[in-house]
């Protein structure tokens, strides 16, 4: 039987795997990936704040690999924060 958390867990795991394995992936693309996951999470699981927290935690962890000194990625992270506050 399909579990509601299955789709989120699979997408979250895929995003984490991509962020970890694609070390040369542009930081802006990494941030965009997490913005998309956050948007999905907010639309499909609006009552699951633990899912939202997980996306933000994973985005933060990916930032240590990809976002250092990248103004495009930093602006994407601001966009993530804005989308989060807008959805609450």
What percentage of amino acids are in beta strands?
under 5%
Radius of gyration: 13 Å
Sequence stretches where pLDDT stays below 50 over 5 or more residues: none
The CA-CA distance between the termini, in Å, is 30 Å
Helix content: over 70%
What series of H and E elements makes up the topology? HHHH
Helix segment count? Answer: 4
- Shape type: globular
Which class best fits the helix and strand makeup? Answer: mainly alpha
Number of strands: 0
Biggest sheet descriptor: none
The average pLDDT score comes to: 77
Keywords for this entry:
about 80% helix; mainly alpha; about 90 residues
Q: Would you spell out the secondary-structure blueprint of this structure?
A:
Layout: H1 4-21, H2 27-44, H3 49-66, H4 71-87
Overview of the structural elements:
Helices cover 81% and strands 0% of the residues. It has helices at 4-21, 27-44, 49-66, 71-87. It starts with a helix and ends with a helix. The mean pLDDT is 77.
Write a concise synopsis of the structure shown:
This protein has 88 residues and is an all-alpha fold.
């Amino acid at each position: 039987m399909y579990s509601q958390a299955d789709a989120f867990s699979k997408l979250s795991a895929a995003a984490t795997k991509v962020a970890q394995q694609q070390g040369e992936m542009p930081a802006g693309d990494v941030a965009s990936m997490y913005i998309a996951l956050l948007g999905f999470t907010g639309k499909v699981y609006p009552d699951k704040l633990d899912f939202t927290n997980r996306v933000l935690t994973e985005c933060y962890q990916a930032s240590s690999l990809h976002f250092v000194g990248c103004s495009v990625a930093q602006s994407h992270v601001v966009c993530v924060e804005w989308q989060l506050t807008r959805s609450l």
